[in-house]
Amino acid sequence: MVDKASSGKVAYIYLSDMEQVGMDQFVRQFYAQTDKEALILDERWNGGGNIDQILLERLRRVLVGMDANREGVGVTIPNQLVRGPKICLINHYSASDGDIFPFYFRKYGLGPLLGTRTWGGVRGIRGPWGLLDGGYITIPEDALYGLNSQWVIENHGVEPDMTVDDSPADWMSGHDVQLEAAIKYILGELARKPESLPAPPPALPAYPPLPGAD
To answer: How confident is the model at residue 186, as a pLDDT?
Structure first.
């Protein structure tokens, strides 16, 4: 649906968690779409993990130069980046590292958040210790706070910049209204500020004249 609605300009990445599966999803989807002009990152229903810093480090890459090969094709420096507008989809099932990732996605200025407020449970846990009834116990160990020495996220979650709620009726009718809103936003940003890479300069002669030569 993303490619059909965006004429192939927009990369779409879905992350189901922030563990091994989520890392595999990011690697498979991100590197295959670095030729796109913009990015929608969907982490709704994300069960958490601990890879947010790895993903954010890659998404924060900034274009600083270009390289041209013999065919005149421009290559970005650094490689593997999507330099255009970005947006992150969240909902009330985005949990733990699924809370943390969108919080810093916005903090780093990568783009806005769209959807509904995240779950709000981010404390790192140790365990689990199994119980006789099949349940288990974990111990919370870590909590986040900001540079102003105030606790963040825990017991509240991350508020979206654009609140778009969905309903069972939307899904039954075949509409993902949150994704549709994200596509509309991204295409609007591309129309407002089209993305293009600098063209290579004219080729130099094979043997440029020496200074002072006739």
So the answer is: 97
